[in-house]
Write a structure and sequence with these properties.
The complex is a heterotrimer of chains A (493), B (95) and C (495). Chain A is an alpha/beta fold. Chain A has helices at 2-6, 9-17, 23-36, 48-63, 105-112, 161-168, 185-191, 225-235, 279-294, 310-325, 343-354, 357-370, 376-396, 422-426, 433-438, 467-481, and strands at 43-46, 74-78, 116-121, 175-178, 194-197, 218-222, 265-269, 298-302, 402-406, 442-449, 455-462. In chain A, strands 4-6-5-10-11-9-7-8 form an eight-stranded mixed beta sheet, with helices on both faces. A three-stranded mixed beta sheet of chain A has the order 1-3-2. In chain A, a hairpin with a 5-residue loop joins strand 10 (442-449) and strand 11 (455-462). The termini of chain A are close together. Helix content of chain B is 35%, strand content 9%. In chain B, strands 2-3 form a two-stranded antiparallel ribbon. By secondary structure, chain C is an alpha+beta fold. Chain C has helices spanning 69-81, 179-196, 235-254, 300-309, 314-325, 329-336, 339-350, 358-376, 387-398, 404-417, 421-428, 436-449, 451-458, 464-475, 482-494, and strands spanning 12-14, 17-30, 67-68, 89-90, 93-96, 106-109, 119-124, 130-142, 146-148, 155-159, 166-172, 208-217, 227-232, 263-267, 272-275, 288-289, 296-297. In chain C, the strands form four sheets. In chain C, strands 1, 2, 7, 8, 11, 12, 13, 14 and 15 form a nine-stranded mixed beta sheet that branches. In chain C, strand 1 and strand 2 form a beta hairpin. In chain C, helix 6 crosses helix 8 (358-376) and helix 12 (436-449) crosses helix 15 (482-494). Classes of the chains: A alpha/beta (493), B alpha+beta (95), C alpha+beta (495). The A-C interface holds A 81-82, 88, 90, 95, 98, 100-102, 104, 205-210, 212-214, 240-244, 320-321, 323-324, 326-328, 330, 332-334, 343-344, 347, 367, 370-372, 375, 379 and C 55, 58-67, 94, 96, 98-100, 103-106, 156, 158, 284, 286-288, 291-294. Strand 3 (87-91) of chain B pairs antiparallel with strand 10 of chain C.
């Protein structure tokens, strides 16, 4: 049983095809592991019966030599994706009891490729957060503990904290996440796994609970880069139901994965060297540069001058869009309803009781920056700065093939350490947010350990729709880093 | 640009969000901290720069005019907290 | 606005002197299309509750809009028909507010960059004046759902069938100056929309509604504060509402008060406007471009194609009816107000051998046909007499087979039985008698039997001529050719 959990996604796929194991065995192993790791609070809903039924169907197909690219592989789904007939909460009280009568396009694609659903993972409420602490269902826990403080529970990062925790804790073979401001990459960095955000429009947003429409994007969270490439193939694709979905064919993301970086130009943006940057992160970044140089890449110093303005730009645009996207949660057609004497009261009572404080903060900020008299000064201004940030990247990609940067400005912090200071929490996204504003693809690869023995990731950023090249660079980095550390809790697994 | 309690209260009304009195003060503080943080955008020279209107660069897709959806009142009312046959129900509205 | 020289500009007399009205209209016209603006659900009127509601219309989590190409085309066609500027790039914005008929908590509309810009509508007014009303803009937006307040004592029921149906909001400049002008504008707009098939203009069913902005001022002054009367779906009520509202405002101003800018409703039972309670707080719609959509870019070739496909518009058709058919302004206007009527009329004129007199045809249609249809409560579409059939009747009249008098009887018979003219004339032997000999015989008989009257006539009592005509016609069963009767009688009575 333990051996099964060692197989990564690609290896498991091969093992299933070779008949070395069955989907039912594999799925059961993961269901058992989920039970054993309940303390991680990585899952909001476990769909054991459904998982086993899907596994059985997969086994039947595999026995006939049929089956899709992800046939029989058990994966977890961030509870932001609507799954038909299965509780979907967005980790919010306001979606109590909501069972969508429809399936999101991305998860539909995964089931169509033969994957098996283990359950719905925990997240920050409505994907708003960087630590998974704003969840109505309690924080998800990082499988890693600091070497010098095994008692203190650490955050897995956010918002896709549950998915990260599950994959890192081997309670899922792989998981879906969404990345609006770094919500796949940063938790991947904190938990020592691979997390990828494809280009905006590469994956459909249809059926994903919307947070910030011009920034949201689904992506894979996996153990390895090869796994990410495989899983992305099963998720991506043009969707006519999503007007922002790119009308492009899905290339083979695994093609050329092992081609290496000889002859590629890697950009190192000077503005990412921020004030107060922990030396160990700066050192790891330099190490990453050296790895790629040794592998034959040309290193190019680049400038992304508007980088310092990315966070404030994001924290105007994202709340603004969210304030509008969350207006539909009003107690009328689904979810929580708290009665009131009038319609307006019912709305206010329902939303006041149903949304947590971070969500409320963002709705209020968003409402304010769009309001009469402030729209030009805040929202429109931010969208202009966004154009400049995008222009920075466009210009940079004329001279480089990929960009290397740290993923996060620290290792995982303790649960409760930053909840009282929203702005401090926002700073966790400093390296990830610029990419979301530009709409570009990026990936975090585990690269080393911090002084406290916690994972640190390095981030590779690519040009629009160039995921294959991005994955190729990430693979070279992964190879060079040879990150093999595991959280103590995996001892014996 | 600093917000006072009354302004936050009126934003909350616009957003149909009941913020109890004891949470209003801390909320004002949080919001002002956030606004203080985003003020730095004023330092950026954006003259002549258009707001980003289109991230991917493709054109707005337009679908053919055909009835391809709807016709399932049971599905759309399935999760309604106060179902009334095939209707949704809300507290009585006076116009 | 180019207001033609008006003999008597419309004024309301207040206590302190005359007041001028300033009226602007926002017409919401439901677009004719099979499915909704951003969802594939059906748009047909009168369906079972929530049966034409997709997940998108129900604003379920994760749902996204996809625009309907035909709705865009319909808006462009309308813009072209209004002589308006078509904006090659336009943007969809979210208009954010909370209401029970708005499941998303926002309406997808167009704010700063609408699809259509400035245009103009020409009006013909009853007293023969013409007037131009400027169009400010036209934009596409989603319609809201329907609320039902009378199904339950303490609850309002929500039906989202209408939610998401495409609307064209057509905003006029504040160029209207009277209830009459406003009514003419609505009729003209409706006529144009029905001509090009972009809206069926059915106000009773709610597919065309108006928000009326009314303000008053002393002649020569600047604009006063206006009030908006919402959701009007009857031209008659629009006129009443304007009258009432103008007087209400005048009364306040003359008493030294000022007008609060507000939204009002018209209470048809009382004939009054009253303030809308739920809209008392000022709305801050927080418009911003909808991030689920991209800017709409229109290809000039497509615009040109749509323009080429437009049918002849009401004004052009009316002008042609006057020049080509020699019709009066009144007749031309009557016949061209509805495209179906104009088509029907032209089918009569151009049918058969194409030699039918257009003026006579116009008379038949506007007096005889319309008169009969009105009486029977029928629309032209349900007329028992087809254009072809009326044409056939005209042919028999034209070639002298029947007289004008007989034709009217035949027409009545056609209406009742649906038979064609030739069949009726044949069956009832109604052919006009133009045989001189036969008529002469009857004339002789009439004169012979009324010798005393003949004498009186010859003695100077000219009026008796009508008597002889009447007798002759009666004796011939109405079939004698009236012209010939006149001639023969004249000759014989002369001595």
């Amino acid at each position: 049983m333990a051996g099964l959990l060692d197989l990564d996604l690609v290896a498991a796929r091969d093992a299933l095809r070779a008949g070395e194991t069955t989907s039912t065995e594999l799925t059961q192993a993961y269901l058992d592991r989920i039970e054993a790791t309940r303390d991680l609070n990585a899952y909001i809903t476990v769909t054991a019966d459904r998982a086993l039924a899907m596994a059985k169907a997969s086994d039947e197909r595999l026995a006939k030599g049929e089956g899709g690219p992800l046939e029989g592989l058990p994966i977890a789904v961030k509870d932001l994706f609507c799954t038909e007939g299965v509780l979907t909460t967005a980790a919010s009280h306001i979606l109590d009891g909501f069972k969508p009568p429809y399936e999101s396009t991305v998860t539909s694609n995964l089931w169509g490729a033969g994957a098996v659903m283990l359950g719905k993972t925990n997240l920050d409420e409505f994907a708003m957060g960087s630590s998974n602490e704003t969840s109505y269902y309690g924080p998800a826990v990082n499988p890693w503990r600091a070497a010098d403080d095994a008692q203190t529970k650490l955050v897995p990062g956010g918002s896709s904290g549950g998915s990260a925790s599950a994959v890192a804790g081997r309670a899922a073979l792989a998981a879906t996440g969404t990345d609006t401001g770094g919500s796949i990459r940063q938790p991947a960095g904190f938990t020592g796994i691979v997390g990828m955000r494809p280009t905006y429009g590469r994956c459909s947003r249809w059926g994903i609970v919307a947070f910030a429409s011009s920034l949201d994007q689904a992506g894979p969270m996996t153990r390895t880069v090869a796994d990410a490439a495989l899983m992305l193939s099963g998720m991506a694709g043009h969707d006519p139901k999503d007007s922002t979905s790119a009308p492009l064919p899905v290339p083979d993301f695994s093609a050329g994965l092992e081609d290496g970086v000889k002859g590629l130009r890697i950009g190192v943006p000077k503005e990412y060297r921020i004030d107060g940057m922990p030396p160990e992160i700066e050192k790891l970044w330099a190490q990453g540069v050296a790895w790629l140089k040794d592998a034959g890449a040309e290193i190019v110093d680049i400038s992304l001058p508007h980088t310092p303005y990315a966070l404030p730009t994001y924290y105007i645009i994202a709340p603004a869009e969210a304030s509008s996207n969350l207006a539909r949660y009003d107690g009328v057609r689904y979810g929580l309803r708290v009665d009131g004497d009038s319609l307006a009261e019912m709305y206010a009572n329902t939303r006041g009781a149903g949304f947590g404080s971070e969500v409320q903060r963002r709705i209020l900020i968003g409402t304010y920056v769009l309001s009469a008299g402030y729209y030009d000064a805040y929202y429109r201004k931010a969208q202009r700065v966004r154009s400049l940030i995008r222009r920075d990247f466009d210009q940079a990609f004329e001279t480089v093939d990929a960009i290397l940067a740290p993923t996060a400005p620290s290792d995982a912090f303790a649960i409760g350490a930053e909840v009282d200071d929203p702005v401090k929490m926002y700073l966790n996204d400093v390296f990830t947010v610029p990419l979301n504003l530009a709409g570009l693809p990026g990936i975090s690869v585990p690269a080393g350990l911090s002084a406290r023995g916690l994972p640190l990731g390095l981030q590779v950023m690519g040009a629009m729709f160039e995921e294959a090249k991005l994955l190729r660079v990430a693979r070279a980095l992964e190879k060079a880093a040879a990150f093999s550390a595991r959280p103590a809790m995996l001892e014996g697994i | 640009m600093s917000l006072d309690k009354a302004t936050v209260a009126s934003i909350a009304t616009l957003a149909r969000l009941r913020v109890p009195d004891d949470r209003l003060e801390p909320m004002v503080g949080d919001l002002n901290a956030i606004l203080g943080f985003v003020e730095q955008l004023n330092r950026v020279d954006t003259s002549g720069v258009e707001p980003l209107a289109n991230v991917t660069g493709h054109a707005l897709p337009q679908r053919e005019d055909a009835v391809t959806d709807g016709g399932y009142p049971d599905r759309v009312t399935l999760n309604a907290p106060d179902p009334a046959g095939d209707f949704y129900a809300v507290p009585k509205v006076v116009e | 606005m180019a207001e033609a020289d008006s003999a008597q500009p419309y004024r309301i007399q207040g206590e302190t002197g005359p007041w001028e009205l300033v009226i602007g209209l926002e017409v919401h016209a439901q677009v004719v299309s099979k499915s909704k603006l951003f969802s594939g659900a059906a748009t047909a009127f009168g369906a079972e509750p929530n049966s034409q509601v997709s997940l998108v219309d129900a604003a379920m989590p994760g749902m996204l809009p996809v625009i309907n190409r035909e709705c865009v085309d319909q808006a462009v066609r309308t813009g072209l028909a209004l002589g308006a500027k078509i904006n090659e790039v336009s943007v969809f914005d979210r208009k954010n507010y909370f209401y029970a008929d708005l499941p998303q908590g926002y309406q997808i509309s167009q704010y700063l960059q609408p699809v259509v810009g400035e245009g103009v509508v020409h009006l013909d007014l009853e007293d023969g004046r013409t007037c131009e009303v400027g169009i400010e803009r036209l934009h596409l937006e989603q319609d809201a759902g329907k609320l039902m307040h009378d199904q339950h004592p303490s609850k309002t029921y929500v039906d989202l069938n209408r939610s998401g149906v495409a609307l064209m909001e057509i905003v006029s400049k504040p160029d209207l100056r009277s209830p009459e002008e406003t009514a003419a504008y609505i009729r003209k707009l409706r006529s144009i929309l029905r001509y090009i098939g972009t809206c069926d203009g059915n106000m009773q069913e709610g597919s065309m509604r108006c928000d009326v902005n009314v303000s008053v001022r002393r002649p020569g002054e600047g604009y006063g504060t206006r009030c908006e009367i919402k959701n009007m779906n009857s031209i008659r009520f629009v006129q009443q509402a304007i009258e009432y509202e103008a007087r209400r405002q005048i009364e306040i101003l003359e008493a030294g008060g000022k007008i609060d800018q507000e939204t009002r409703l018209f209470d048809a039972n009382r004939g009054e406007t009253r303030s809308m309670r739920s809209k008392e707080e000022a709305h801050d719609y927080r418009y911003f471009p909808d991030p689920d959509l991209l800017p709409l870019a229109l290809d000039p070739a497509r615009i040109a194609e749509l323009k080429a496909e437009l049918p002849e518009l009401p004004d052009a058709r009316k002008a042609r009816f006057m020049s080509e058919y020699g019709l009066s302004l009144y007749d031309a206007a009557t016949l061209t107000e509805e495209r179906a009527t104009a088509d029907w009329y032209e089918a009569v004129v151009k049918g058969g051998t194409g030699k039918r007199d257009p003026k006579i045809a116009a008379n038949w249609v506007t007096s005889e046909l319309f008169g009969a249809l009105n009486k029977a409560g029928l629309d032209l579409a349900d007329s028992p007499v087809s254009a072809d059939a009326l044409g056939g009747l005209m042919d028999l009249l034209g070639d002298g087979t029947i007289s004008g008098r007989i034709a009217k009887d035949v027409f009545a018979e056609m209406l009742e039985t649906g038979k064609d003219a030739a069949a009726i004339v044949e069956e009832k032997g109604l052919k006009q008698v133009s045989d001189t000999g036969a008529i002469e015989a009857i004339v002789d008989a009439v004169l012979a039997e009324n010798q005393d009257k003949v004498a009186e006539y010859r003695g100077g009592k000219d009026k008796l001529f009508g008597f002889f005509v009447g007798q002759t016609m009666k004796r011939s069963g109405g079939k004698a050719n009236p012209g010939m009767v006149n001639e023969l009688l004249k000759a014989k009575l002369a001595g």
